[in-house]
Amino acid sequence: MLIRPERPDDDDAIDRLTTAAFEPQSFSNGSEAPIIRRLRASGDLTLSLVAEDDGDVVGHAAFSPVTIDGSHDGWFGLGPISVRLDRQRQGIGRALVAEGLRWLREHGARGCALIGDPAIYGRMGFTGDGPLSYLDLDRAAVQQVTFWGPPPSGELRFAPAFDVEGR
């Protein structure tokens, strides 16, 4: 398996993969593939990684700028992240996250935040239940990993591409 930056000819495969991966999820409203398209179109898709196996895109992770209390200050968000249904639980998502975090750190980012299950992302170094918040979500789901400087504090906001139905 190869983890690499997306290429222009990956757009359709990423779209199909993301749609299929999120379709059976009860928490999904179907906005994930359109979010990636809007991030790409707006120039906010800072890093887009694919996992490729035998020429097929089997995983994808998007990283984009976030603000905390209105300031970007070197923080990025992870998501959406998707893995083909028949390839889940094989370490593909973990490999995508690890490579993305490595790249962000090497490029001077202060840290990365996401909204997700602490049981999953805690194994990847993310922590939650702290002074970082997002809308009215349980703070345990507002995860972050700090590369340098103090941990963030305040209201997390994702790139405008995530604004769906007033969120």
UniProtKB/TrEMBL annotation:
Give the matching InterPro entries: Acyl_CoA_acyltransferase, GNAT_dom
What's a Pfam family in this record? Answer: Acetyltransf_1
Q: Which residues belong to any copy of the N-acetyltransferase domain?
A: 1-148
Q: Name one GO molecular function term.
A: acyltransferase activity, transferring groups other than amino-acyl groups
Q: Reply yes or no: does the keyword Transport apply.
A: no
Q: Does the keyword Cell division apply?
A: no
Kindly state which keywords UniProt assigns to this record, in alphabetical order.
Answer: Transferase
From the Swiss-Prot or TrEMBL record, give the protein name.
GCN5 family N-acetyltransferase
